[in-house]
Amino acid sequence: MLTYIQDIFRRYPSTYEGVIPTLCSNLEELDEPEAKASLIWIIGEYANKIDNADELLGIFVDSFTEESYAVRIPDFLLPLMTNVTLYRFNYKH
Questions:
Q1: Which of 8, 42, 69, 84 is deepest in the core (most CB within 10 A)?
Q2: Which residues 6+ apart lie within 8 Å of 17 measured at CB?
Q3: Which ranges constitute the DSSP H helices of the chain?
Q4: pTM of the model
C-alpha cells in the first residue's frame, strides 16, 4: 500500500500531504521492506512538513541492524542514508 502512496506522491506532489501524519503514526505497523523504504522516502521528501522527521528517520536508523541482510542493502540502506543526509543538510543548519 505504501509503495502505491509513494507513487501517488511522486506523480501529484503536494496534493495528498494530508495523509502524511497518518502514515507516520503507523510506523510500528510496517513489516514489509518495500513499505519501510517507501515511508523513508516519504519522510525524506516531506521532512520540511513533518515536525518529528528526524525522530522518525532515527527509528529506522536504530532498527537497521535488525533487518535481514537482503533487505538492508537494496531496499533500506540507500533511501535511509540519502534521506538522513538530505535532512541534516537541509534542516539542521
A1: 42
A2: 46, 49
A3: 2-11, 20-25, 33-45, 53-63, 69-71, 78-91
A4: 0.72
